[in-house]
Amino acid sequence: MLNPKQSDKLASIILYTIAGLVILILAALVGYILVQGVPHLSWHFLTSSSSAFTAGGGIGVQLFNSFYLLIITMLISFPIALGAGVYLHEYANQKSRLIQLIRTAIEILSSLPSVVVGLFGFLLFVVQFKLGFSILSGAIALTFFNLPLLTRSVEESLRSIPDLQREAGAALGLSRWETVGHIILPAAVPSIVTGVVLSAGRVFGEAAALIYTAGQSAPALDFGDWNPFNTASPLNIMRPAETLAVHIWKVNSEGIMPDAAAVSAGASAVLIIAVLLFNFFARFLSNVLYKRLTATK
Amino acid sequence: MAAGTQGSLNLTNEQPDRHIYHMDEDKHEIALSTKNLEVYYGDHLALQDADLSFERFKITSLIGASGSGKSTFLRSLNRMNDDVATVKGNIMYRGLDINSQDIDVYEMRKHIGMVFQRPNPFAKSISDNITFALKQHGEHDKAKLAEIVETSLKQAALWDEVKDDLKKSALSLSGGQQQRLVIARAIAMQPDILLLDEPASALDPISSAKIEDTLMELKKRFTIIIVTHNMQQASRVSDYTAFFHTGQVLEYDLTRKIFTRPKVQMTIDYVNGNFG
Ligand SMILES: Nc1ncnc2c1ncn2[C@@H]1O[C@H](COP(=O)(O)OP(=O)(O)OP(=O)(O)O)[C@@H](O)[C@H]1O
Ligand SMILES: [Mg+2]
Q1: Domain for residue A7, yes or no?
Q2: Domain span including residue B95
Q3: What is the tally of structural domains in chain B?
Q4: What total number of domains does chain A contain?
Q5: Which of A99, B122, B181, B197 has its CA 20 to 30 A from that of B262?
């Protein structure tokens, strides 16, 4: 038999090994993609539009599309998630049947495969509502995908604010709305922001939900035209918009350009770097906000 | 008062199991009183027939073992228990039953303030902690707000420690300072009555002593009801003391009587520390 000290030691060794293995796999994966892709990166690659048949195409339009789609998605999903999260955590009677039903629905929504969400978006928004392959259709599909996670992260952020703060507000004769709006939400901002940025990273890398909604084509954009109602304008939300992740999938499955492998490797590296940046940025931002909230000014 | 005959010659050794001091409204100005107060958490009866009157500009201590219903009683007084418990009975304040449905609880809480066991300053600056609720309630005169910040911090014995740094985050203060800030925040509202639930229990003796001084100072302007586990504190600061036991008030009297000649055996045991 092991004595407590030995079994403690054994457990630590096992846990460290597992943790080390996870880190190793992650590092190997990211490292491989970066090593393969980074040599292909150039200013030209990052800014020029893709070409279907000839070598030397870039990912400029796709990169822009990814960011633009992300912004539109957040513009739609964040207000809804914020409202839902605040309602569920601050107002709703936790024991009510309806609230439990809503929670279950959110759970289910968050576990739907994204390709199913994509097909649903295709049938309903692209076909039925005649939105076509467009940024708007893609953003709505991504909202379905993003909303449950974002709502939950808002809820978690609110949960992390102690009830003492709510009681403090109530004891000063503040209404619940005043307490939530001026005390609870501001205190929850750092962790809400972290949740948003992390979910942005996930949305940014999403492909399956977009193939049949935002489409697989990236018409050239006129970066001199910022009128959102013009067809060639980058801001037009009714235009089809292949994103970076969809582009990677497309190049790999049916790319016929001679440098398909290089384009795919380069684009993957950019995608990974972007997602990593989102994660670091989330950390950084939440630290800064937390310090501003608590430290001496 | 049959059992309460001249205590010194009580040879029968008979004791009442309950003794509640009834305040004469002609002799005492009553700030708040409860009648037949009963509190249920679900089916669990946590407090029953509490009939207490609190005299204006006096300090009343609520003492009793853990779980005896002190917080339950205190939190019912300004309706902080509305969401978690059912409170039956009357709470009379200025001729109004503030336990009735049609009371505007937010308005009422401006008159009956509360300080909690654990300091709960907002994640805002020291001065914003004090002015925030006042601004929400419609006070926007900068000079007046600044004056309120100063007087309430002085009353809470915190002014000298923070006066040079009112823009500093309240979260950077020590626990004892935070608790005094929270008291300042409560008195800045100019309430009539201040409810305190073990305000000094998490503090070191020096901070705790400061808070006691603060309370003695504050009772000139406010009626104070305080829950405490500290018998010395109760006997030092309060004028009246109520002893709670398993959801009932067993004895309520002048503090000096509770600590020198309590009438109920349970109280005797409790204040002497041989409670079992
Ligand atoms: N929110 C709640 N839900 C259910 N039961 C509760 C709740 N709060 C208190 N109780 C119960 O009510 C009874 C009285 O609790 P209360 O908190 O009033 O005691 P207390 O005298 O303040 O004790 P302490 O000295 O430990 O603070 C206890 O039996 C407790 O379990
Ligand atoms: Mg208590």
Answers
A1: no
A2: 15-271
A3: 1
A4: 1
A5: B197
Residue at B25 is within a domain: yes
Residues in chain B: 276
Report whether residue B81 contacts ligand 1, using a CB cutoff of 6 Å: no
Count of CB atoms situated within 10 Å of the CB of A87:
14
Confirm or reject: Cβ of B84 under 6 Å from ligand 1. Answer: yes
Q: In which band, very low, low, confident or very high, does the pLDDT at B275 lie, cut at 50, 70 and 90?
A: low
Name the pLDDT band for B14 (thresholds 50, 70, 90). low
Distance A171 CA to ligand 1 centre (A): 19
Q: Is residue B1 part of a domain?
A: no
**CATH at residue A115:** 1.10.3720.10
Of the partner residues B80, B107, B171, the one whose CB lies closest to the CB of residue A170: B80
Give a yes or no: residue A30 inside a domain.
Answer: no
Closest Cα in chain A, distance from residue B167 (Å):
7
Ligand 1 within 6 A of CB of B72: yes
Answer whether B30's CB lies under 8 Å from B23's CB: yes
Residue A84: HSE in the Cβ half-sphere, 13 Å Cα cutoff: 18
Cα angle for residues B67, B70, B72 (degrees, 5° grid):
85
Find the CATH number of the domain harbouring B72.
Answer: 3.40.50.300
Record the tokens describing residue B208, joined without a space: 């705790």
ipTM score assigned to the predicted complex? 0.84
Q: Give the separation between CA A208 and CA A291, rounded to whole angstroms.
A: 38
pLDDT tens by residue, B158-216: 999 999 999 998 998 988 899 999 999 999 999 999 999 998 887 788 888 888 888 99
Give the rounded percent of residues in chain A with a pLDDT score beyond 90. 46
* Residues on chain B bordering chain A, Cβ-to-Cβ distance under 8 angstroms: 78, 80, 106-110, 113-116, 118, 120-123, 125, 132-133, 136-137, 165, 167-169, 171-172, 182, 185-186, 189
| Residue among A164, A186, A297 minimizing CB distance to B118 | A164
